[in-house]
Amino acid sequence: MTERFTLGRRRWAPRGRYEPWAIRDVFELSQERMSDDEFFARRREVLSRWPTGREIEDLDECIAFSHRLGPHRFDAWRELHAEEKEKPGIQTGSGESTIEKQLLDWKLTEEAGATHLGIITDTYTRRCRYDEAQRQMERSEQTGEDLLNGFPLVNYGARRVRRELVEQVTLPSSGTTAHTESPLLSCEVGLAAGIGTGGTGFVEAIEHSKDYPPEQKIKDCQYRYRLVGKYDEAGVYAGIHASTNLTGYAIPAMSLSLAIMEMMLAAGQGVKYVGLYVNLRNHLIQDVASHRVARKLLPEYLARMGCPDAVVTSVASWAYEGEWPRQQEKAWSLVAWTAITACLAGADWMKLKTPAEALNVPAAEVKAATIRMACYLRTILRGQRLPVSDDLLEEEAMIELGTRAIIDRTLELGDGDLARGMMRALEAGVIDVPFSPWVYLANRALVARDAQGAQRIVDPGNLPLPQRVLDYERRKMQERAARDQISDDMELVMEDIHYFAGVR
Amino acid sequence: MNTPDRPWRVVIGTIGDDAHIIGVRLFEYALRKAGFEVMGLGAQVAPEEFVEAAREFQADAVLVSSVYGHAAHDCAGLRERSAGAGLEGILLYVGGNLTLTEEDPETLVQRFQAMGFDRVYPGYTDPKAVIAALNEDLAERVRVRVGRSRP
């Protein structure tokens, strides 16, 4: 490894009103369950970050509210009890500037046939700039403009969100509340209002963070998982779903290994209901194979973590996270393809993007149309799965080998402790993702698409992929190099950056 | 001390509040493949960070990327800052979408050269071209230094 860049670490300072975890050494990280002393001490600090935190100081009261809502209002319960004919379920994201618009959006989404509701917080909230979110929220309410790119959950607070939003709808809801900086207050307010928390912190840091330190991120994740664990242990089906999106440029082994490791950390903190979103790459065999590997490995690694109570509730599909086309015919095609893939992969539910993805925050009508289209495709495809073939089995075997290799090596680096292992794996480049802004990644691995559009490793960097997998990936890339008459790795990669943006 | 035996060192990043990352990461990869030692600062890099990193890394060149249109503002004073930190001779390159308005590339190049940049690349640029330029410019500096050391 060439010398690591250290400047970013020294410069980091909390941007919002939060205290960092006091960690001086990697040995202070551990996969062990957080003690109540540590958890509640941190909880006091988290709730002090914005005045609405005071509303939810009594955790028992928050849990009691969830019980009053009913278990059917949480994703995990729905997934454990939904009938086959209701699968895959359908969800879109949603984040409006005011609570009134948010409710309208949710109601339209319910009417259109969604089975899950989603919520996304705005960028200021994600960066813990609750003061700025407050200003824009108030202006939006006064003027009717949409000044925020998501819902200011913390500013409205649990009391209002319960009364004016969650109690007004009937479907289970969850939020992508775990974003770059320390998102713990968003998760607290969401859960207290009956909105599950989705997405995973480490993965989010890789996607969006510049210099949030990894040891802080691991502790934040563990706090969040301990919080969900407390809800789950009390009989609420809060649960958590790992997202695997990364940067949109990652092979399945990279995504799945990270998601599984985060769910292992979650189970270690007492989370009982665990799931995983597979981010789609829009290559049918690769996507279906990824779902199959997720279903196989998630329960196995949870068992290895020594968490017999943890249950896998679902494996869901998440729409492609790379660049989307602006032209609407192409964008609608991509939406349809997401739904079709989710059905053929036997996903338990699908998280859709709308055709406005490359343009703007979608209007409620666009979301409703997206959902109606997905419902119709589900009707056409119901029960059909991609037939098992030699190609599918080979892809599945390779993804499984790669995923296992990364997780096993990470555990090895941590001497059996996953939290320490993830820190060391990051430093060693065993966890590595191309095109991430996070300064803590090695940035050695490189990915491009093969002749059929599946994502392949071009340069593994320090990823511990077995030789069989590297040979398979190289063979696939050679087919493309021959077809396109391109021998230079860089050119292959650069061609792919705009793959789905409709350039061809 | 730069010698031809030691690999050339480059600092690269996207300047200011600009979050664009893919271009600089691709460049990092290409530069490493071409034998450079690279300190990749990522995106949203303050001007003073470039200078401090260049000093810490003993860099031979700083490559600045800007895609969101505010390059002229963000890059102002970078040459002076570098000189102030004892990096008078350091190569400064800038590339990307350097303006918010339509501007003739020639004018753009002159404007940034006047700010102290050795090379200016408006619009999309293939890493190969930049690597060739770096090799040329750095070899020139070695020749000049070797020339001066002869009696």
Characterise the protein shown here.
The complex is a heterodimer of chains A (504) and B (151). Chain A is α/β, with parallel strands linked by helices. Chain A contains 19 helices and 10 strands. In chain A, the strands form 3 sheets. In chain A, strands 1-8-7-6-5 form a 5-stranded parallel sheet. Chain A has a 3-stranded parallel sheet with strand order 2-3-4. A two-stranded antiparallel ribbon of chain A has the order 9-10. In chain A, helix 13 links the parallel strand 6 (273-279) and strand 7. With 151 residues, chain B is α/β, with parallel strands linked by helices. Chain B has a 5-stranded parallel sheet, sandwiched between helices. Chain B is globular. The mean pLDDT of chain B is 88. The A-B interface holds A 2, 5, 7-8, 11, 210, 434-439, 443, 446, 459, 489-490, 493-494, 497 and B 19, 21-22, 25-26, 28-30, 33, 37, 39-44, 49, 52-53, 56, 127-128.
Q: What keyword list fits this structure?
A:
heterodimer; A: 504 residues; alpha/beta; five-stranded parallel β-sheet; three-stranded parallel β-sheet; 50% helix; 9% strand; globular; B: 151 residues; 6 helices
> Which pair of protein chains has the largest interface, and what are the residue counts?
A-B, 20 and 22 residues
Backbone structural class of chain A: alpha/beta
Separation of the first and last Cα atoms of chain B: 20 Å
Q: What is the subunit arrangement here?
A: heterodimer
Q: Determine Rg of chain B (CA atoms, Å).
A: 15 Å
What proportion of the residues of chain B is helical, as a percent range?
40-55%
Identify low-pLDDT runs of chain B: none
Order of helices and strands of chain A: HHHHEHEHHHEHEHHEHEHEHEHHHEEHH
